[in-house]
Specification:
CATH class of chain B: Alpha Beta
Strand content of chain B: 15-25%
Radius of gyration of chain A: 36 Å
Radius of gyration of chain B: 13 Å
Oligomer: heterodimer
Number of strands of chain B: 5
Number of helices of chain A: 11
Order of helices and strands of chain B: EHEHEHEHEH
Helix content of chain B: 40-55%
Shape of chain B: globular
Distance between the termini of chain B: 12 Å
CATH class of the largest domain in chain A: Alpha Beta
CATH architecture of chain B: 3-Layer(aba) Sandwich
Number of helices of chain B: 5
Number of domains of chain B: 1
Helix content of chain A: 40-55%
């Protein structure tokens, strides 16, 4: 320390210590004004040494958001005599900023009076860029993985469909040939239900990964609904109240069937195969509202906000993709879907296109 | 009188399960084939009420079968049974005015519904 103070006095610091350092260095007087600095500080800040030495308020080298950090660090330095690695962003003369970390020591004389401060800093913008690049690379890898996984699931799902079809039809044959006996019928029904469950899960995956352009046509809602109800198994104890009125919809039939199938199946599952599903269809001032209401136990509050998020599911056997596909199909039709609970009600609103 | 059908699919198990189902349901199975060429030859030979045709088959695929059956009889009733129904395929198939396109996996309930539709048309 003594050496440093004498060096300051003799103004030799710049030649020996400061210029050979790989860091930015500055010497402040007891008031905190810059009295000397090295080339690195000039290069990094783009200010000339004489400009820097003229800086009465070195704090103005720091961007506004970080000024409080430097103020409190400087206070700390006065008390503790040393601070290390304070991260702040420094403003260049042109106005842009770079990330840096700073350390400092308080220089005192023999009588323990503060004579100045030696501050050193490292430009860490390369490291921060490196971090950002790392994050970006990670993100890109993740997206590539997801895309690959999507393609892979689509392929698997697709390959499973053929054998599933065979099992389904063969089971049906067995039921006709041997199912007269109630015990045997029960076994076959059980197998059939399980196959149907797999089928629906595979459909979920395929509907999610397949991006299909809309193939719009005019179709009666009643026709859509009856096709939907033909393609899903409706348990004996589930009653479906279908709307008495009918409307012509302008939509992609296949995709809208995905919407109906998913919402009706969800309803059935949430009611554990017992209860009523009511379907309401209303047209008002050119806006069509379709509601599917089930008499199930409702949706827990914490699940409501996440219900349309990919992979979110409350079901043991759910893929968490069904409602995601439903939402994207509704939105592709220019509609909006919302959900409320007690009773669970899915509401789809879209404009009637003539 | 029973309606007559030919069934064409390159997977022998699909072929077996569907033709079994149809014969249980009272259809006459006039023949089974495993590619598009079989389909055309069987159609020519038997002149069935309905053809049940898979799309993706090796060498002579379903499109080949469909195109040539329609050349023999433009009014031929053909049901396409496929797990490969993308838009491109669908456009190509629709050019030939097929009666129905059924996507696999389909339950026999769905299959029967389509057959009933076809029966009404015949």
């Amino acid at each position: 320390m003594m050496l440093l103070v004498s060096l300051i006095k003799n103004n030799k610091l710049s030649n020996i210590l400061i210029e050979s350092s790989p860091d930015m260095m500055m010497l402040l007087d007891e008031q905190g004004k810059i009295i000397d600095c090295n080339d690195h500080l000039e290069k990094n800040t783009k200010y000339t040494k004489s400009e820097l030495i003229g800086f009465t308020e070195p704090i103005n080298l720091i961007i506004d958001e970080d000024k409080t950090i430097i103020k409190s660090s400087f206070k700390e330095l006065k008390i503790t005599n040393i601070i290390q690695n304070v991260p702040v962003r420094v403003k260049r003369k042109e106005g842009d900023a770079f990330s840096s970390i700073w350390s400092g020591i308080t220089l005192r004389d023999n009588n323990n009076h503060v004579r100045g401060y030696l501050i050193t800093g490292k430009d860490i913008s390369n490291i921060s860029n490196f971090d950002q690049k790392l994050i970006l690379t990670k993100k890109r890898n993740h997206q590539e993985k997801l895309a690959l996984l999507g393609e892979f699931s689509a392929r698997i799902a697709h390959d499973i469909r053929n054998p599933l079809s065979i099992v389904l039809v063969s089971l049906e044959n067995l039921k006709i040939l041997y199912g007269a006996d109630e015990t045997k019928q029960k076994q076959l029904d059980r197998a059939e239900r399980s196959i149907e469950r797999i089928t629906h899960q595979i459909e979920d995956v395929l509907n999610f990964v397949r991006e299909k352009p809309l193939n719009l046509e005019n179709i009666l809602f009643s026709e859509l609904l009856s096709e939907s109800m033909d393609s899903i198994r409706i348990p004996d104890k589930v009653k479906i109240k279908i709307p008495k009125n009918d409307l012509l919809l302008f939509c992609d039939k296949k995709q809208f069937l995905i919407v109906l199938n998913n919402l009706i199946l969800n309803g059935i599952q949430s009611m554990s195969n017992v209860g009523t599903i009511e379907i309401i269809l209303v047209e008002n001032n050119g806006e069509i509202t379709l509601q599917i209401i089930d008499s199930g136990p409702g949706i827990p509050d914490n699940a409501l906000s996440e219900i349309f998020e990919p992979l979110f599911t409350t079901k043991q056997s759910g893929t968490g993709l069904g409602l995601v596909s439903v939402k994207s199909i509704v939105e592709a039709h220019g509609g909006i879907i919302s959900v409320t609970t007690n009773p669970t009600t899915f509401t789809i609103k879209f404009l009637k296109i003539k | 009188m029973n309606k007559s059908v030919i069934v064409v699919d390159d997977n022998v198990d699909t072929l077996g399960s569907i033709s079994d189902y149809l014969s249980i349901r009272g259809f006459d199975i006039l023949g089974c084939g495993t590619n598009g060429l079989d389909a055309v030859q069987l159609y020519e030979k038997h002149n069935p009420d309905v053809v049940l045709l898979d799309l993706a088959m090796p060498v002579y695929d379903g499109l080949y079968g469909l195109e040539h059956i329609k050349k023999i009889n433009s009014q031929a009733k053909v049901i396409i049974l496929t797990s490969l129904c993308n838009d491109l395929n669908e456009k190509k198939i629709k050019l030939f005015k097929v009666t129905e396109i059924v996507e696999k996996p389909c339950s026999s309930k769905q299959l029967e519904k389509f057959l009933k539709k076809v029966q009404m048309i015949i």
